[in-house]
Amino acid sequence: MTERYIPALSYRWLTPLYDPLVAWTTRERAFKSALLEQARLRVGDRVLDLACGTATLTIAAQRAQPGAAITGLDGDPAILARARAKAAQAGLDLRFDEAKSDRMPYTDGSFDVVLSSLFFHHLNRDAKRATLREVHRVLRPGSWLHVADWGRAANPLMRGAFLLVQLLDGFETTADNVAGLLPRFMTDCGFVDVGEARRFATPLGTIALYCARKPAQGRP
Ligand SMILES: C[S@@+](CC[C@H](N)C(=O)[O-])C[C@H]1O[C@@H](n2cnc3c(N)ncnc32)[C@H](O)[C@@H]1O
Known about the structure:
Blueprint: H1 18-25, H2 28-39, E1 46-50, H3 56-64, E2 69-74, H4 77-89, E3 95-98, E4 111-117, H5 125-138, E5 139-150, H6 156-169, H7 171-178, H8 182-188, E6 192-202, E7 205-213
Parallel strand pairs: 1-2, 1-4, 2-3, 4-5
Antiparallel strand pairs: 5-7, 6-7
Helix pairs in contact: 6-7
The chain binds S-adenosylmethionine.
S-adenosylmethionine binds next to α3.
């Protein structure tokens, strides 16, 4: 069966509302800043923002580390047009590529850091694993993946709030997130030092920040 592509807010006609809705409902500034603090980008780093959407994180990453080379990738040409316009408005010359996350147009070891925010809950279990294997391939050995996404609900209130996301984005793709399975999938796909670094309580549920490292060549 062909996998269903889930756009940023599930329905393409809602895409123009993406930025204000995410800003109001996810504590976006707080969790994206924390993700960038966690990533500690360095001068010269080649960084991929996987499923960059409208490029809010891509732009923040470039501002946090002007000496890094940041690329945004997304599978939706309409949202990439918004990303390009936003980056141009911010006066930044960023690279954006259109591709699916499980078939990225990069050679092995192309990136020193992969960032991803609010993305994995758009994929079913097979696609989550295929994407993690692809991220592992494009990362340089010894380098890190940093993910922010819906995670295990911190309490029943957070679990109840997350039902709204599930109604919009679907139950199949979100179930593994709220069951807290992303770290296990990362380990299954060859990552080491997998951990949950922080959690954020938001009006729509718990956002977790994860990190995972591709082993250095020949070593765990
Ligand atoms: C909720 S948005 C998150 C956007 C951005 N990372 C952020 O934090 O605001 C999810 C994004 O994933 C993209 N997407 C969904 N499935 C994808 C796939 N298989 N490959 C690449 N991008 C995909 C959508 O087009 C959308 O832009």
